[in-house]
């Protein structure tokens, strides 16, 4: 089937996924104010296009962490992708490889990180800080040995946010889906009424990360270290001082603190604060190539895309994910040209406005 927009893939995914698995993917924390605000805030940003520009040689390519990518995006870390398709992370990683974009392997991957990295392309590894520091650093070493190109350290999950949909569903992983980078058996499979087994599992495994944790990771790897979950300009400044090579401006897709500001609202401020001293990416609510253009105009070198990739995976496996990348590439090429930009870097010179009406 051919899809015209990512919204088409979202509807297709919802049609095929069981209700509680759809809720696990689509839901946010609490009343989902931040989840909703991510889209509302992006929709309120308008760019000021430029005319009569030379578009000869236009390209969607961009540099991410020192290497060229076909699009200014990476696949965001998403846990337990075999919930959405039997091939899970392997199918999504193959599609990312073929599209020429980095794929971020999650600590909570349902396929061992070595198997996902072996697909090829540009694998990154996402790290959660564990109660056992040695296990955290062992994951970093495994990622290095497997050929991952960066450590994306998620810093906004001292514990999992209260996700009402999962709690109402008493959500637990099916026995066929495991946290493959840990022991196969875990609390994530024990269903309890009114509680999330996945949240219980992470409460047992995760520890709150600190700036000392960042320093420890930085000292134990030569790979680029990217801090994901930064929303305050002061934290962005400290990230640079701590040796971070990049930051991801993100409220975790509205899945952690409900009421946390949307990333697009603070992106410009954070980009100005770091002033080119580290890479800045945006995560949360990206649904069109036009959204990527807005992020670039506000100072991001690229974006992370999570849920839409899972929609493609659920709808049609690797082929569905391929179509996600093709749609975003076509939309970004169109948006760049209509805005008078021959490249993603040129979009950084566009003006933006948030209208006062509505």
From TrEMBL:
Keyword line: Flavoprotein, FMN, Oxidoreductase
Superkingdom of the source species: Bacteria
Family: Belongs to the FMN-dependent alpha-hydroxy acid dehydrogenase family.
Binding site for FMN: 77-79, 126, 154, 228, 250, 283-287, 306-307
Residue ranges of every copy of the FMN hydroxy acid dehydrogenase domain listed in the record: 1-357
UniProt-recorded Gene Ontology molecular function terms: FMN binding; oxidoreductase activity, acting on CH-OH group of donors
Binding site for glyoxylate: 128, 163, 252, 255
InterPro entries for this protein: Aldolase_TIM, Alpha-hydoxy_acid_DH_FMN, FMN-dep_DH, FMN_HAD, FMN_hydac_DH_AS
Entry cofactors: FMN
Keyword check for Transport: no
UniProt entry tagged with the keyword Flavoprotein: yes
Catalytic residues (UniProt): 252
Name this protein carries in UniProt: Alpha-hydroxy-acid oxidizing protein
């Amino acid at each position: 089937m051919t899809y015209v927009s990512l919204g088409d893939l979202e509807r297709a995914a919802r049609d095929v996924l069981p209700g509680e698995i759809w809720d696990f993917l689509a839901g946010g924390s609490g009343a989902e104010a931040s989840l909703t605000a991510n889209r509302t805030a992006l929709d309120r940003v308008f760019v000021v296009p430029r005319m009569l520009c030379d578009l000869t040689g236009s390209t969607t390519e961009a540099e991410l962490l020192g290497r060229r990518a076909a699009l200014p995006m990476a696949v965001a870390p998403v846990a337990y992708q075999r919930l959405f398709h039997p091939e899970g992370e392997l199918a999504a990683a193959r599609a990312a490889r073929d599209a020429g974009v980095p794929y971020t392997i999650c600590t909570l991957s349902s396929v061992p990180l070595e198997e996902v990295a072996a697909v090829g392309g540009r694998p990154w590894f996402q790290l959660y800080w564990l109660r056992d520091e040695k296990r955290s650093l062992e994951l970093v070493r495994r990622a290095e040995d497997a050929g991952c190109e960066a450590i994306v350290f998620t810093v906004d999950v001292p514990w999992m946010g209260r996700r009402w949909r999962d709690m109402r569903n008493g959500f637990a992983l099916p026995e066929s889906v495991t946290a493959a980078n840990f022991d196969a058996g875990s609390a994530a499979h024990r269903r309890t009424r009114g509680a999330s087994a996945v949240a219980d599992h992470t409460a047992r495994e995760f520890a709150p990360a600190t700036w000392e944790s960042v320093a420890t990771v930085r000292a134990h790897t030569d790979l680029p270290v990217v801090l994901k979950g930064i929303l305050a300009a002061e934290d962005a400044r400290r990230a640079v001082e701590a040796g971070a090579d990049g930051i991801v401006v993100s409220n975790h897709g509205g899945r952690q603190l409900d009421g946390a500001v949307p990333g697009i609202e603070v992106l410009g401020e954070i980009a100005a604060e770091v002033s080119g001293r580290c890479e800045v990416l945006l995560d949360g609510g990206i649904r069109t190539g036009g959204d990527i253009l807005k992020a670039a105009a506000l100072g991001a070198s690229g974006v992370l895309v999570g849920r839409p990739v899972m929609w493609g995976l659920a709808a049609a496996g690797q082929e569905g994910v391929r179509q996600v990348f093709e749609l975003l590439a076509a939309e970004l090429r169109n948006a760049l040209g209509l805005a008078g930009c021959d490249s993603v870097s040129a979009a950084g010179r566009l003006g933006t406005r948030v209208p006062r009406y509505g």
